[in-house]
Task: structure prediction
Amino acid sequence: MEAVNYNSASMRAAKARLGVRLGKTWRLILALATIILLAGGLGLVVSHAAIGWLVAGLAALPLLLMEWDKYELENPKLVGGSIDGMLAGDVLGALGKNPTPQDVAKAVASVRGGQFFAMRFGITSGFLQNITTDQPADMATIWQHALEIREASGSKDISAGVLVVAIIRSFAQYESLLAHMQLDVDDLIAGVRWYDHLRDLIEKSKQPRRTGGIARDFSFGYIPLLKRFGQNLSESAGSGQLTVEVASHARALDQLIETFGSGGRQNAALVGEAGTGKTTIVHAFAERLLDAKAKIPANLKFRQVFILDSAALIAAAPGRGELEGLIMQVLGEAYSAKNIIICLDNAQLFFEEGVGSVDLTNVLLPILEAGSLRLILTMDEQRYLQIGQRNPSLINALNRISVAPASREETIAVLQDQLIISEYQRHVTYMYQSLAEAYRLSERYVHDLAMPGRALKLLESGASYAESGFVTAKSIQQAIEQTMDIKVGVAQGEDEREKLLNLEDLIHQRMINQTRAVQVVSDALRRARAGVRNQNRPIGTFLFLGPTGVGKTELSKALADVYFGGEDRMIRLDLNEYVRPEDVSRLIADGADDPTSLTAQAMKQPFSVVLLDEIEKAHPQVLTTLLQLLDEGILRDIKNREVSFRDAIVIATSNAGADRIREYIERGYKLQDFEQKFVDELINTNQFRPEFLNRFDEIVVFRPLQKPELIQVIDLILAGINKQMSLQKISVNVAQDAKEFLVEKGYDPRLGARPMRRVVQRAVENLVAKQMLSGSVAPGTVIEVTLDQVRQILGDE
Amino acid sequence: MLLITELLRWWYGDGWRLRASLVANRLDGTIDYFSVDLLLKTLFSPYRQISAGRVDGPLGVQMRAMVDKLFSRIIGAIIRLIILLIGAVAIGLQVAIGLIILVAWGILPLLPIIGLVLTLIGWTP
Result:
């Protein structure tokens, strides 16, 4: 470890300070002085004044200083050994003698690295000033941390970025401070690497490119057809388009070079999920081939990659057999030109019949088998298998190169490079937090693409939700909330907080009693929206046990309505339809084949209540499939895609043991006294396996409703009727004794509150309907329903 | 004073080396621009692959193809030689300018002294 020693009097420090002092104004003055002295001197010499030699000679002095400043003073050569020998020139030049932490914070904020952290992480000058002292003695800790962070990030110098992290790291409560900004030290070190990477990119862009010169293609043939039906990737690569270097891509790129650089069949099939960057690899390959300095075999140098445009080809050759002829001409031209590598992007378009695609297997197979024309094919794994199934010899003729989805670090690196273009086009600035959030949320919610494509897609949509030009984690959350209709951030609006705090009251507006059940689901939602729940599980998983008609399904509906925004936000599955082992495939069917499958519905609507009704009737294999859903909030569909249930409340209901519950209640037991015993009985009688019951956050036993509660149920039903009739400005009022009579008529201990609706319908709704049709009620009327009227309709028995 | 010494040390050390590498880079760029190495390697290749393909058939047809190919090679060689010639002139100029810059670099810090000497001598053209 280098010495923690800062020497402000060192030659390097003096040079850096001089470099900073020679700002724009001085540089201009020096340039003018050079010109004036030289011109003036030569003018004097021409007019025979010998002093002109001296004047012209003096012009060398400002010129010397300018050159020194440009190539040395702006960033004096690193010498190592001490802090001043390793500090980046811009920071070193801004520091004085015995700097205090506050001086360093100020210096850091005034240079590019500090501004980078202010913009990308929200770590501003004011923030740094607030956490630093004015004691020079405190500098030792900052320098020590700076050395450690430089080592950890692999930076060549102690840049302003390294110092920002060191300042924060030296603050006692740095972890909570960073947590407040949704960051940790590793994120900041990633930020230092990002800044270093940008510096390298700038340096690289200053290096001239060697691309073969004006006579590069003299030995290669003309390609008029290819120019018409293809896109020359090498041309766009030559114009300096950004391509990203990540490990998985580098491997594929090396394999491509190996395949085309050696003998054997000159073709390669890049196989990987959509979004893994197959086309990007082909772009990078084209760029590499055109780089005169790249270490590639001579027979690949200056070869050009053309992507064939299938749509243009089909449009140009509509007749039968014409397309085959045209393709042969194009490929023949590419072969004769000697410097062309053809790329069939989304190669399935050339191997199957469909809209915008055509099966050219008969034409392409002999070419692929002969292996003399260089061809790159890109396709996803599924298509590759399908094509292989139809035509095994085609797959045998191809050199397969697999492209794996990028890891988190790789994805973030790709995002960092790609956002440069997006920022330029959309005039926004992406913060680091938005990148991390794009990765996290896209991993959970974007299913049709692989990394890094899926994160990039989300990051780009986040730009539309930028605040004051900044794309933050919140922008990304808003983007996913709007596109997927879910809630991913913590509750922030006053309305939502109010709703969460009073959730029980809101639910009780449409269901009676069952206080414990209402409370456990309300607590789960509050935990989720306060951000304190386990993110890798569903919001809550509950098993509701109890006889029919006690409000199990009603609670799920109420929850979907009150919190998730409507009863249609409920994914309901009657598991009595899943009684055979083969029903598992229906449960996880692809949305394209069966839009009602559980996975398809969850994919479409991840923020919802999932109601698994009558779970005891499902086949054990179906229950086993559901275990992962309950445990990790993940279910793999038939295409092996991960479908997230992590934003859903999963409620399973069961009537199992309903008679036992009634028995306990009739014997005078209170719910809490027999709840555990009852669950044990369910396990002992093999109605549920313990490992299944253990997966639920809470098992709630619903008790049968008593007569007084049923009066309240009638009130709820009547409120519903009045709501329906409010359009006609008519309402109905049922007398208390009539309600009691309705309860007597509708009460069935086995069916709970369910018969009540029928009874009320028969008695009240029919009565009101008749009165309305007879014209005896006018808008604004309150229809009074008496005991006699009810008796008349329902009878006395 | 120390800074002036440091400036001179840089000027005749790292600075001169840096300037030399810049000159070499520019020369490299010119060589690349005129595709010198490619032209030398393919001096007698058929121009743009015209009449370059293999032809099967009777002797007469093959002879004719060979003549065509020879013609294409000759045309190619002429065009390449012309570009090589222009390139050589450009490279020559580049080398000359580079050398002047490098020599001038060494003399530049001495110019005030040279100017002073010439002033004292009192010579003017």
